[in-house]
Specification:
Blueprint: H1 2-18, E1 29-39, E2 45-56, E3 60-65, E4 70-73, E5 81-83, E6 86-91, E7 94-102, E8 109-117, E9 120-122, H2 124-127, E10 132-142, H3 149-153, E11 154-163, E12 167-171, E13 175-180, E14 183-190, E15 196-204, E16 213-218, H4 229-305, H5 311-355, H6 363-371, H7 376-440, H8 443-517, H9 520-535, E17 553-562, H10 567-579, H11 583-589
Parallel strand pairs: 1-17
Antiparallel strand pairs: 1-2, 2-7, 3-6, 4-7, 5-6, 8-9, 8-10, 10-15, 11-14, 11-16, 12-15, 13-14, 16-17
Helix pairs in contact: 4-5, 4-8, 4-9, 5-7, 6-7, 7-8
């Protein structure tokens, strides 16, 4: 019974084990490639071979791919099999190396290296041992026929090592110069997806040059986004300041527009006033001549009264007084007309002057606005604005100072006009009384009163005539002076018109500046992100340079060297040439 149970359990165990599939873990294989290339001194490609390394965690049979002309085991003496582009071998635990030679496979980059000595282009071989000013140009370009993944993700480091005793005054604008023992090392860096023209210059004696070393490695460094909060705040302050400038210039433009509008009205009003004062001045001579005639007539009448008069004389006197009265009334009409024209012109001038805005803009305000503007042309516009504003305020101040004199003209004209009416009435009254006296034959009784009245009238009119002469002289001076003042007003008006145009252009410029800088912090962040994305290759996955069939490639590097330019190599080349002589050449050398 016990044996039967044991058999049952054993049978069940076998059945269970038969249902379990054992999965063996595949060996881990990781590959690296280092591409070694030699160039001629001028950059032309020569030999190329690749050292392939494999990291394995246990002995494994590996198949690799590449169009090699020859392969060589660099790790042990085990056999490697090659069939077309397929290479098979067994790699023991740890690292396995083998070399594969390539022929005719181009690099992802092309190099053109040229040499100048004292400004003349020469071949490297012809420069050995010579002195002069050396210039080496290394031009890198992208080879479009090769997988672009390398130029897009790899940076190049180009190093020249020179003897510090032979190379003096070294200049390499895009390179760094460092001491390396008794040598100097000049290093250039070419970022991914870029083409460069690199230049090194120096004063050289006994020219020789070691191999130029070029390394191509993935730009796999991770670039963290910098903390730009403080910088962003500064840019935001700049944006806010630019907007304030735009608003300030906008207000300035509106103020200048108001100023220009007021100056145009002032110019129009000033022109009307000028025409009125000129008309008034032109009428002064007629006014003076008429007044002089009246003055002479009154003097003549007054003189005539001292003599005996007949009835005919009284009739002539009555008629003369009536004519003088009519003349005075005509003068009064002319004065009234002049006063009306002057009043209209003065009111227009006064309104225009009062329309000039009296903004409280200080020199410091102008300096603050000018200091925030970058363009010299904009600062000149602001300076013109300030000068024009100052001139308009001076004109307004001059007018305010002379306002009393302007205002006094109209009342004076009214007063003079009223005096003319009163005198005319007095003369008309005299003429009437003379007529009455003549009719009543009461001449003797009225003669004394008439003579006394005319004498007083003549004396008063002489004083009036003298004041009228002084008044018209003042009008003439005012007319002459106002011509200059009006020209100044016209000049200011023209200046404010030009200024308004300049302020409009200035405001357009500041508005455009404000618009372009309104999102400056965001633009800056976008530029930083774009630049980081351009150079951050931390997500780069390596691909085989040799064959796209290769997998698990961890890294690919390029080690590129030019041939050294030395006297020793030149001698070896000459010896090689000599060794290549034929039998007859060697035979002839025996007799030379």
């Amino acid at each position: 019974m016990i044996i039967k149970r044991i058999l049952v359990v054993f049978t069940i165990s076998i059945l269970l084990l038969s249902t379990v599939t054992v999965v063996a873990a595949s060996p881990k294989v990781e590959k690296d490639e280092v591409v070694y290339t030699t160039l001629q001194p001028n950059g032309a490609q020569q030999e190329m071979y690749v050292v392939n390394s494999f990291e394995v965690d246990e002995t494994s049979d590996i198949t690799d791919y590449g169009n090699y002309t020859m392969v060589k085991n660099l790790t042990d003496l085990s056999e490697m099999k090659k069939s077309d582009d397929e290479i098979s071998f067994t790699a023991s635990e740890d690292t396995f190396y083998y070399q594969g030679n390539l022929e005719g496979k181009p690099l992802p980059w092309e190099f053109d290296i040229s040499y100048q000595l004292d400004g003349e282009k020469v071949t490297p071989e012809d420069m050995v041992g010579k002195d002069g000013h050396l210039k080496i140009e290394i031009e890198t370009s992208i080879n479009e026929d090769v997988n672009p993944i390398f130029v897009e993700n790899y940076l190049l480091q180009i190093a020249l090592t020179v003897d510090a005793e032979k190379y003096q005054e070294i200049v390499a604008e895009e390179g760094t110069i460092a001491n390396a023992g008794k040598n100097k090392q000049i290093t250039f860096t070419v970022m991914p997806d870029q083409e460069k023209n690199l230049v090194m210059e120096a004063d050289v004696t006994d020219f020789e040059l070691e191999a130029i070393e070029i390394t191509g490695i993935p730009s796999s460094m991770s670039i963290e986004s910098p903390d730009v909060d403080e910088m962003t705040e500064d840019f935001q302050s700049l944006t806010d300041a630019t907007e304030e400038i735009d608003n300030g210039v906008g207000e300035l433009k509106n103020g200048i527009t108001d100023l220009n509008s007021g100056m145009n009205e002032l110019k129009n009003g000033s022109n009307e006033y000028k025409n009125g004062i000129v008309e008034l001045n032109n009428g002064s001579s007629d006014l003076i001549n008429g007044s002089a005639s009246i003055n002479e007539a009154l003097s003549s009448i007054n003189t005539s009264l001292d003599q005996e008069m007949s009835m005919g004389d009284f009739s002539e006197l009555q008629e003369g007084l009536a004519q003088v009265a009519d003349g005075l009334r005509e003068i009064e009409k002319g004065l009234t007309n002049l006063n009306d024209n002057y009043t209209k012109a003065y009111q227009t001038l006064d309104e225009s002057m009062n329309d000039i805005p009296a903004y409280d803009i200080t020199e410091e305000d102008i300096k603050n606005i000018s200091g925030k503007l970058e363009e010299e042309q904009d600062r000149e516009v602001v300076q013109k604005l300030a000068e024009t504003f100052k001139a308009s305020q001076q004109a307004k101040g001059t007018y305010d100072a002379a306002k009393e004199a302007f205002a006094a003209v109209s009342p004076t004209l009214k007063e003079v006009s009223g005096s003319q009416i009163e005198m005319a009435k007095s003369l008309e009254t005299m003429a009437s009384e003379i007529a009455t006296a003549s009719e009543e034959m009461n001449i003797q009784e009225s003669m004394a009163e008439l003579q006394e009245g005319l004498s007083s009238l003549s004396t008063n009119y002489q004083s009036f005539h003298g004041g009228l002469v002084e008044y018209t002289n003042g009008v003439g001076e005012l007319s002459q002076a106002y011509q200059d003042f009006h020209q100044g007003v016209v000049g200011i008006s023209d200046g404010t018109s030009e200024l308004e145009n300049g302020a409009s252009e200035l405001h357009e410029g500041t508005s455009e500046l404000a618009d372009s800088t309104s999102d400056l912090p965001d633009q800056m962040q976008e530029e930083i992100d774009e630049m980081i994305n351009e150079y951050d290759k931390s997500d780069f996955d390596a691909e085989s340079f040799v064959s796209d069939k290769n997998e698990n490639v961890q890294s690919v590097q390029f080690v590129i060297k030019t041939e050294a330019i030395t006297k020793q190599e030149q001698e070896e080349e000459e010896e090689e040439i000599q060794e290549e002589k034929g039998f007859w050449d060697k035979l002839l050398d025996l007799f030379r």
